[in-house]
Specification:
The complex is a heterodimer of chains A (about 250) and B (about 270). Helices cover about 35% and strands about 25% of the residues of chain A. Chain A has about 250 residues and is an alpha/beta fold. The relative contact order of chain A is 0.18. In chain A, strand 4 and strand 5 form a beta hairpin. Chain A has a domain of about 150 residues: P-loop containing nucleotide triphosphate hydrolases (Rossmann fold, 3-Layer(aba) Sandwich), CATH 3.40.50.300. In chain B, helix 3 packs antiparallel against helix 4. In chain B, about 45% of the residues are buried. The mean pLDDT of chain B is about 90. The chains are: A alpha/beta (about 250), B mainly alpha (about 270).
Chain lengths: ~250, ~270
């Protein structure tokens, strides 16, 4: 369970998160919707400790992570997997090395054979059997995201964070990624937070959807509740209108 | 006054500008010091993974060898031509090789190698880490619980500190050889005289001073490349700025430190 209370963050003197409260329940997939530039990625980076808030509290299963030193944070981070917006694959390494890096660095007693087997298995999960020796530069956008996902799954995380998992993909590849997230969710029973502005993706993968606007959560509901809501901000966002309470920036 | 400002307002603006600049410079020195401190702390606790170190030593040292050899060959050749010209009718040519050797070993070898490597390696480290920063690869490392200073900075700085002295020794030898080729074939000094001069005026402390300098220059080049890489913000333009910053700063620092080390080594240590 992730509990976020009163989270505030200013970037270049502009408030991005402004007293945000949010709970992510164990086992659920929460989608954070919101217009571009409203601090969705910033929120994710706070959860995994890549950014430190100006004020507020973040608890992971009861443990406060705000104010932790880098070494202690690293222990918390190993329970997370994160899929970055542009996949953030290490381009000096092969696909296989990308997936195996965390296993080798954290030396958790795995033999080279076990590492190899686990890399193969993770790549099979994301539909990239036999891609070990390819270089990230030769992969398409969708393949990169899938390798990023395989890498995020390397250490059997309890939590997975997705930063815009479908952005920049064609609708078919976007659906492949959405289904993959959904399937992995069922198989692995992890807790996930995805930030996106892709409504279709949100409906497909979410157990619960929240809307982030003006540095706070302004709506929370199931996909069905989101579809049927009369909340003017949510309506404007899902209808994709430039007129309404949300001011485009 | 121009722009309708009083003298007092102009002075105040000037003061604020200087204060901001001074503050920025101090902050920069602070950040570099923190990076150096963290790197040393990590290195004291655990040496970098052998595989990463060898990879970097290869990139920094082996891949730079040809460049260093060409530069030092011509440095020695030029030193021979210049020294011979300046010796004309004043100093006997039997001292030519000694002058070439000592200026190369003490000064030209370590400093020119550092400037060339600062350009080649400093730029490539800054560009690589800068690109990793703007494409979130450094965030990805941290998200995996891997300390980027340990994984990226420590092997690069260590490799630069190890390889610079080695490259400098190659540069010394090749520059003296370049001087030999010109002295014998162009200036008309006999090979025996050239070699005799080398033997007579060889001092181990000259070589040591050059190697000590090279150790420090390696540290500067590795650290500045990593520092500017980590500071990169905002896409391709940011990477370009980081690369320029790394090269310019390493070269300037190499020359400043060269003076400081020369003062310490020749006025205190070897005095």
């Amino acid at each position: 369970m992730i509990e976020i209370r009163g989270l505030k963050k200013r970037l270049s003197r502009k408030p991005v998160l402004d007293g945000l409260d949010l709970d992510v329940r164990t086992g659920e997939t929460l989608v954070v919707l919101g217009p571009s530039g409203t601090g969705k990625s910033v929120l994710l980076k706070h959860i995994i400790g890549l950014m430190a808030p100006d004020e507020g509290s973040i608890r992971i299963d009861g443990e406060e992570i705000v104010g932790l030193k880098e070494g202690a944070l690293n222990r918390v981070r190993r329970r997370f997997g994160m899929l970055f917006q542009g996949a953030a694959l290490f381009d000096s390494m092969t696909v296989g090395e990308n997936v195996s890096l965390a296993m080798l660095e954290h030396q958790n007693g795995m033999t080279p054979d076990e590492v190899e087997r686990r890399v193969r298995e993770r790549l099979e999960w994301v539909g990239l059997r036999g891609a070990e020796s390819m270089k990230p530069a030769s992969l398409s956008g969708g393949m990169r995201k899938r390798v990023g996902l395989a890498r995020a799954l390397a250490l059997d995380p309890e939590y997975i964070l997705y930063d815009e998992p479908t952005t920049g993909l064609d609708p078919i590849m976007a659906d492949v990624i959405n289904q993959l997230i959904r399937d992995l969710q069922k198989q692995l029973n992890v807790t996930s937070v995805a930030v996106t502005h892709d409504i279709t993706s949100a409906y497909t993968i979410a157990d619960r959807i929240v809307l982030l606007y003006d540095g706070r959560i302004v709506f929370s509901g199931t996909p069905d509740e989101t579809r049927g809501t009369r909340d003017p901000m949510v309506r404007q966002f899902i209808e994709g209108s430039s007129h309404g309470p949300i001011q485009p920036v | 006054m121009a722009n309708g400002l009083t003298g007092e307002e102009v002075a105040l603006r000037g003061f604020r500008f200087l204060r901001t600049r001074a503050g920025d410079a101090l902050a920069e020195i602070g950040r570099v010091s923190l990076l150096i401190g963290e790197t040393l702390q990590l290195l004291a606790r655990r040496r970098p993974a052998f595989r990463l170190l060898v990879q970097q030593m290869n990139g920094i040292g082996v891949d730079s060898l040809w460049l260093v050899l060409v530069v030092s060959l011509f440095t020695g050749a030029v030193a021979a031509v210049q020294a011979a010209y300046q010796f004309t009718a004043v100093v006997p040519l039997k001292y030519l090789s000694a002058v070439i050797m000592r200026s190369v070993v003490i000064e030209l070898g370590p400093v020119l190698t550092a400037l060339v490597i600062g350009g080649r390696v400093g730029a490539s480290i800054a560009a690589e880490l800068g690109t990793m920063k703007v494409t979130e690869q450094i965030d990805a490392l941290r998200a995996m619980g891997i300390n980027p200073v340990r994984y990226l900075v420590a092997p690069r700085v260590t490799a630069a500190i190890i390889m610079l002295p080695i490259l400098t020794i190659y540069a010394d030898v090749i520059a003296i050889f370049g001087g030999f080729v010109v002295a014998v074939n162009v200036v008309g000094v006999s090979a025996a005289t050239y070699l005799q001069g080398l033997r007579e005026f060889f001092y181990m402390k000259d070589v040591m001073s050059g190697i000590v300098k090279a150790l420090f220059f390696g540290g500067i080049i590795g650290t500045m490349g990593c520092y500017y890489g980590f500071q990169t913000e905002g896409g391709a333009e940011g990477v370009g700025k980081a690369t320029t910053g790394a090269v310019v700063t390493s070269c300037v620092l190499v020359l400043i430190l060269d003076y400081i080390l020369a003062s310490i080594l020749f006025r205190v240590v070897f005095a």
